[in-house]
Amino acid sequence: MIEVNFPELDTLLCSPTKEEMDSAIKIVSTHSSPFEELSLRTMAAMTKIRTTLSRAKVTKSNKRGVLEGATALLALLYEQANEIGTLNAKVALMEAKSSEVEDLREQCSLLKVEKARLQEENASLVQAASRQNSSPPAQAQTTKGTFADQVKKWSLPKKQKPKFVSLNYPKDGETSEEVTAQLYTSIAPSKFNINVKNVKKLQNGGVAVECSTEDQLRKIMSEINTNKDLQDKLVAKRPVLKLPKVIIYDVDVNFPREHLLQTISQQNEVDVNQMKILFQIKSRTKDRCHWVLETEPEALRQLLKVRKIALEWSRLTVREFRRPTKCYKCCRYGHISTNCKEEETCPRCGENGHKRADCDKEVNCINCADLNKKFQLSLDVKHDSTDPNCEAHIRKMKQLRNRTKYV
């Protein structure tokens, strides 16, 4: 704010002193504020006016009139400058408040994501407890805990016990039932000292056989791939575990992609060779984006342990990224819409020919309905296909977790 008191007109009518004239051309600071610069320039202009009037051959009355007009004009200029300064301060305050509101909105969005994820994991726990015929008190104890406890529990994957599984697929398009029959009639597990823990149907006619040890797994795979009755019909192979992924929220969109991994590594003590950039996701916040990285298990545990990583001057939230591939055209899993050959399906009722906004039919999950039909199950279908508590979605998330390399 500018506060300038002009001398009396009689004082201004006098010729300016040498000090006043020197100050009129002296630069006080190369980084002066706009108000300071305005004050210096106007006072310098007034000094020049006084100098000119002192040398001019005009009456004292005319000089007084010129100075009165000049001081009135400068007073008005200062008043306008003060108003502009006040408005600028208000705008800056509003921008700061707006930024705070955006931050709160983004935090709410992240909390909603975490809530949905926790609901999904809790639902999975309930399903597992139900299958094991757990008592109600034990089940309640399993799912009990604060929000922070649940986030911590599910953010850092526990080390998995190794599974010894052979994936057996037909070469000529047989069904899972036919493949199972071929295995049962051609191989006697007792002959090879193999303890079969589980046999499960797979897509594309496959059958998964789980053994108890690595040695048993090698034996059964060797027998399937070399048995004269099976080697031309089936192929046995190990499951290929995928590396885990993480998502880093709200990175500045202008942050150079080529510097991202190196900066994360240097500031967070994570091996740069254990991370790989996959893709970018748009953020709801302007000028921000989310980056998805593929990591080695060790790097994953290091990043999830801190939960917030340093990136230059920012601290950014990091979470494990687990999202099953899903088509938002037909609402089914396993492919994306650009590769979909099906008709567009309503995610609410599972029927074709209309969108969710126009749907007035009874809610019906197309994915749970498909599972019921294919595997003779009785899953609840009275929910939207985008419901995080959907049994089909929970199974896909569990499947994705089991196919991820955490050790």
From TrEMBL:
Q: Which Gene3D superfamilies match?
A: Zinc finger, CCHC-type
Q: Give the record's keywords alphabetically.
A: Coiled coil, Metal-binding, Zinc, Zinc-finger
Which InterPro entries does the entry mention?
Answer: Znf_CCHC, Znf_CCHC_sf
- PROSITE patterns per the UniProt record, alphabetical: ZF_CCHC
GO MF term set: nucleic acid binding; zinc ion binding
Could you tell me which residue ranges the CCHC-type domain spans? Answer: 326-342, 346-361
* Coiled-coil ranges per UniProt: 94-128
- Name listed for the protein in its UniProt record: CCHC-type domain-containing protein
